[in-house]
Design brief:
Strand content: 15-25%
Radius of gyration: 19 Å
CATH class of the domain at 8-100 and 175-268: Alpha Beta
Structural class: alpha/beta
CATH superfamily of the domain at 8-100 and 175-268: P-loop containing nucleotide triphosphate hydrolases
Bound molecules: adenosine-5'-triphosphate, magnesium ion
Distance between the termini: 21 Å
Strand order of the largest sheet: 6-7-8-3-9-10
CATH architecture of the domain at 8-100 and 175-268: 3-Layer(aba) Sandwich
């Protein structure tokens, strides 16, 4: 594993989330435990409905767990006051499946980016702000001059995703949760976006929690894999171990659905 002696940043013990009551009760996440280290790339892999986004929202503190404990930097996570949440969200940021849900649609690109700097508590001159926004946009191959006056709905799915990464570049959080960031865009932008995330990790030693149903992609980008089935983590470990020597039936089934990995698996054995 890449991050052998790194500190545990975020961990959880027996995290469960139950939605609804009575006969409408649905356990979306059940008894999930994990520890994510500094600079680690973790993928949470599972098919649709397995509870990945629900878990991501609990990690972000956007949904409250029904039971279990989340710890941040070794201490129970506190999200009671506005100040607690503000502090936590400086360190942890997410890119969600639908980028439109993450932006205020009534704000133009320039305001979305200047708000980032406000969140960081940075006191910058207008010129410094422009320089930072231009730098962030060019990191994701967007031209600030062309976009600054546009509203989110005037951008393409790929441009939106890249704008989200530009925000991450400006905020440099300790942890980034990327929930299927590539699902809305074509294969070409998909690999560019993955490369950008990997570059961000390299530059900032950011922890990335990558959420996907694509086990091949997860293997390609991650140090560690968590395999999720029906709300439970059924298998976890270093990506190579999990893929080349899968123990659980569900992991084996996921892998057998990916011809390329299967070939490598055969070669390795
Ligand atoms: N607010 C909610 N109220 C009730 N049930 C919910 C709610 N949110 C999610 N669920 C249910 O919890 C389960 C897990 O949903 P979740 O969105 O976490 O899955 P997912 O793994 O992210 O799926 P996908 O890959 O399709 O995004 C699903 O059965 C879903 O219907
Ligand atoms: Mg989801």
């Amino acid at each position: 594993m890449r991050v052998k002696n790194a500190d545990v940043l975020l961990s959880g013990t027996n995290i469960t989330k139950v939605f609804g009551y009575g006969k409408h009760k649905k356990t979306a996440v059940q008894d999930v435990s994990f520890s994510f280290h500094e600079g680690e790339i973790v993928s949470i892999v599972g098919e649709s409905g397995s509870g990945k986004t629900t878990l991501a929202k609990m990690l972000m503190g956007l949904l409250k767990e029904t039971s279990g404990e989340v710890r941040y930097r070794g201490k129970p996570r506190q999200l009671k006051s506005h100040a607690d949440r503000k502090k936590y969200w400086k360190d942890i940021q997410a890119i969600f499946q639908d980028p439109f849900s993450s932006f205020n649609v009534f704000h133009k690109v320039e305001k979305l980016l200047t708000d980032c700097m406000k969140l960081q508590g940075l006191k910058l001159t207008k010129e410094e702000q422009f320089r930072k926004m231009k730098e962030a946009c060019s990191f994701v191959n967007l031209k600030f001059e062309e976009l600054h006056n546009k509203y989110p709905f005037e951008l393409s799915g790929g441009q939106m995703q890249r704008l989200m990464i530009a925000r991450i570049f400006m905020l440099h959080p300790k942890i980034l949760i990327a929930d299927e960031p590539t699902s809305m865009i074509d294969a070409c932008s998909r690999s560019t976006i993955l490369d950008m995330l990997l570059k961000l990790r390299k530059e900032n030693n950011m922890t990335i929690i990558f959420i996907t149903h694509d086990v091949g992609l997860a293997y390609y980008v991650s140090d560690t894999l968590y395999i999720m089935e029906k709300g439970r983590i059924v298998e976890s470990g270093p990506a190579e171990d999990v893929i080349l020597n899968p123990k659980h039936r569900y992991t084996q089934q996921l892998i057998s659905d990916v011809p390329k990995i299967h070939e490598e698996w055969n070669l390795a054995n």
